[in-house]
Amino acid sequence: MPPMSDAPEAVFTPLSDSHNPWRMSVAPMLDWTDRHCRFFHRLLSRHVLLYTEMVNAGAIVHGGTERHLRFNAEEHPVALQLGGSDRDLLTQAARLGAQWGYNEINLNCGCPSERVQRGAFGACLMQEPALVADCVKAMVDVVSVPVTVKHRIGIDKDESYSFVRDFIGTVAEAGCNVFIVHARNAWLKGLSPKENRDIPPLRYGVVAQLKQDFPQLTIAINGGLNTDEAVQAQLALVDGVMVGREAYHNPWWLTRWDALYYGAPQNTLTREAIEATMVDYMAREAAQYGTPWPHIARHMLGLRHGLRGARLWRQVWSDHRLKDLPAHQVLALATQTYAD
User: Fold this and answer.
1) Domain holding 97: CATH number?
2) At what angle do helices 271-289 and 327-339 cross, to 10 degrees?
3) 30 known ligand binder
4) For residues 290 and 236, what is the distance between their CA atoms, to the nearest angstrom?
5) What is this structure's pTM?
């Protein structure tokens, strides 16, 4: 069965500069894009840029280096997203990230949660562009990989274009050449993080205008993009597209991306082959680190999204009563259930 999409088959002309790392990426998503999720996504696309969850710079520096930075070699290209506003901590964390082999260091200036604000980072940093620039400059000085920023287009109900334009202008002067722009305002009070992903209106035109005003910079867009048609429309205006929840819930979509957006061969692996590879990975993780297979299986529950029998298949892989069985036995049960 072909990958699911609302758009026609292969009607898009890939970018000739297909080495652009930010052409397509999967967004950093807290509690979702851990290394197991990224291993899974890499099976679906060889070229998409993958991001870690946001990691507190202080947690990396103060004793949690291996726990927070360990990743699988198969994940490349992979970017480390940092949260923080302390220049020294960010500098140390960025240096460690580069030493561990991450391909990019990204600073989070977009998360609107009040818990993150209490740590003085996330979207509230957009109100302090000079501080962000100082932190970026410090990180640029100690790593050879790109230092990038992910941010919103505004704060609370201020929808003035000059706010985000001046933010980018200030931070770019510090050596940041890549900005991933979530095309919504961040409301710092009165909305939950979930509501902040839906309620402030998307304003894609703001991001397109940023690209016109900063043609020398790489501008990628994020927010609400969930079809090939929508992605292609944005790639005609900006340099890259970052996809979040749709990539997680409907991961089979990623199998189209190498051909559509990188001019590379389309992924020919079947869902069954990808599931089998994930189960081998579960066994490897259990042997090396004692990782319970449910911690990994939860990320692939969307693999059969939209297919007949998918619900019963998901029920097997999410059945806590099976958690003590080896993953290969659970695979056999899931396969039989799906076949029936």
Assistant:
1) 3.20.20.70
2) 160
3) yes
4) 46
5) 0.91
Do 256 and 172 share a domain, yes or no? yes
85 within 8 A of 121, measured Cβ to Cβ: yes
Considering only residues 200 and 99, tell me which one the structure prediction assigns the higher pLDDT.
99
- Nearest-angstrom CA–CA distance, 80 and 68: 10
Work out the average pLDDT over 155-163.
Answer: 91
244 marked as binding residue: yes
Catalytic residues: 111
Task: Please report, for the domain that includes residue 314, its CATH number.
Answer: 1.20.120
Q: Residues 121, 249: one domain? A: yes
Domain around 309: 271-339
- Assess whether 82 and 150 both reside in one domain: yes
Q: Tell me, yes or no, whether 134 and 247 share the same domain.
A: yes
Whether 87 has a binding-site annotation, put simply, is no
Q: Residues of the chain with pLDDT > 70: what percent?
A: 89
Q: Kindly report, residue by residue over 94-150, the tens digit of the pLDDT.
A: 999 999 999 999 999 988 765 554 556 778 899 999 999 999 999 999 999 999 999
Residue-wise burial string across 100-118, b where 16 or more C-beta atoms lie within 10 A, e elsewhere: eebbbbbbbbbbbbeebbe
Dihedral through CA 145, CA 153, CA 6, CA 218, nearest 10?
-30
